[in-house]
Amino acid sequence: MANPVVAVTDHPFPDLEPTREVLAPLGAELRMSASVGAADVLAVAAEADAVINTYAQLPADLIDRFERCRIIARTGIGIDTVDLEAATAKGIVVTNVPEYCEDEVSDHAVALMLALARNVTRGNALVHGGSWDLAAVKPIYRLRGRTVGLVGFGKIARLVASKAQAFGLGVLAFDPYVDRAAAAALSVELVPFEELLGRADFVSVHAPLTPETRHMIGAEALAMMRPGAVVVNTARGGLVDVAALAEALDRGVIAGAGLDVLPDEPPAADLPLYGRANVILTPHTAFYSEESVLDLQVKAAQQVALVLSGQDPVYPVNL
Fold first, then answer.
1. Is 47 tagged catalytic?
2. Beta bridge partners of 69
3. Domains of the chain
4. Which of 128, 171, 198, 208 is the most buried (most CB within 10 A)?
5. CA 108 to chain centre
6. pLDDT value for 285
C-alpha cells in the first residue's frame, strides 16, 4: 500500500516525535488537525488510514465521513469521545491504552484521601498566611481502622485498595461485574452500592462514564453517606453531580471532597466548589507523570502500526 496517512485530532504531548518514531517504519504521514472542531478534524481525517484521538469528539456523523479509516486510536483509557457503534458499523477498530497510568491515578486518589484526612491543604494555607494554629485544622482523625469504599473495582481501584490497606484502612467495593471471591482474595468486601455509601469514610469513584453511571454520586447517594465522609473522584467528571455535592457540603451532609476531574474542563468561573477549605481540586493531573505520558503516546501509536501492518492490536475495544 502507499504510505499511510495518520490524522491526529489533538494531543496533550510536548511534541509528536515519539509517535513519528513508532510509525516511521511504515512511512506514515502525520496530519495534525488545526483544532478539535468537526470541520478541522474532517479536513485531516476524511481520507486518513488511521486517526489518533484524545479530546476531540468523534460522533457518528463525523465517523461516517471517514473514507479509509481502519483504526481510531484513543490516547487514554476511556473511549467516551468516540461513537463506538458508528465505528464498529464501518469496520473501524477502536483502541485505547488501559494500563499507562494505573499507578499514577491510584497514587493520586490515595493522596487526595490523605490530604483531606490530615487537613494538609488547610494547614499549608494557614502557615503561608502567617498563622500557626493547630485548632484551625481540627478535627483530624486517625486513618487506621477507617474504611475506603471503591465505586468500581477495576485495575486502578485494586491498586487503590492495596495502597489504602498499607495505611491500615479497611476496603469495601461495589462493582456488579466483579465476582465476590475475586474481591475477597484481595481482602476487599464486595457490597451493594447503598451499603458502601453508608459504611465508607472515603468514597473513591473508579467507574466508567456511561448513561447509567452519570451523576451516580448525586443528591440521593450523598444523602446516604456518613456525615464525616469525603468523596474522591479521579475517574470522570460526569460521575459526580457537582451542584448536589456543593449543596451536601453546605448542609454538612458530608465532610469534604477531592476532585481531579470535573464535568466541564476547564470549569466555569462560577463553579460552586471554589473557595472551600474542605475541597481539593486538581486540574485533571492524576494520569500524569513524565513516564506515563510517554508510555501513553508510544502505546497508542503502536496500535496504529499493528493495524496498518495487518496485525491485531493489543488493546482493541470493539472488534
1. no
2. none
3. 5-100+290-308 (3.40.50.720), 102-281 (3.40.50.720)
4. 171
5. 11
6. 97
Q: What is the pLDDT of residues 151-177, one digit of tens each?
A: 999 999 999 999 999 999 999 999 999
Rounded CA-CA distance 303/26 in Å is 13
- The fraction of the chain above a pLDDT of 70, given in percent, is 100
- pTM of the full predicted structure? 0.89
pLDDT tens, residue by residue, 37-52: 999 999 999 999 999 9
Cβ-contact 57, 39 below 8 angstroms: no
Among candidate residues 236, 251, 276, 290, the one labeled active-site is: 236
DSSP track, the chain: -PPPEEEE----SS-SHHHHHHHGGGTPEEEE-SSSSHHHHHHHHTT-SEEEESSS-B-HHHHTT-SS--EEEESSS--TTB-HHHHHHTT-EEE--TTTTHHHHHHHHHHHHHHHHTTHHHHHHHHHTT---GGGG-----STT-EEEEES-SHHHHHHHHHHHHTT-EEEEE-TTS-HHHHHTTT-EE--HHHHHHH-SEEEE-----TTTTTSBSHHHHHTS-TT-EEEE-S-GGGB-HHHHHHHHHTTSS-EEEES--SSSSPPTT-TTTT-TTEEE--S-TT--HHHHHHHHHHHHHHHHHHHTT---SSBS--
Catalytic residue (one of 104, 284, 290, 291): 284
Condensed to tens digits (0 to 9), the pLDDT of residues 130-141 reads 999 999 999 999
pLDDT at 1 over 80: no
Residue with C-alpha cell 485533571? 284
**Which amino acid appears at position 97 of this protein?**
V
Which amino acid, residue 237? G
For residue 215, indicate whether it is catalytic.
no
Say whether 265 is catalytic: yes
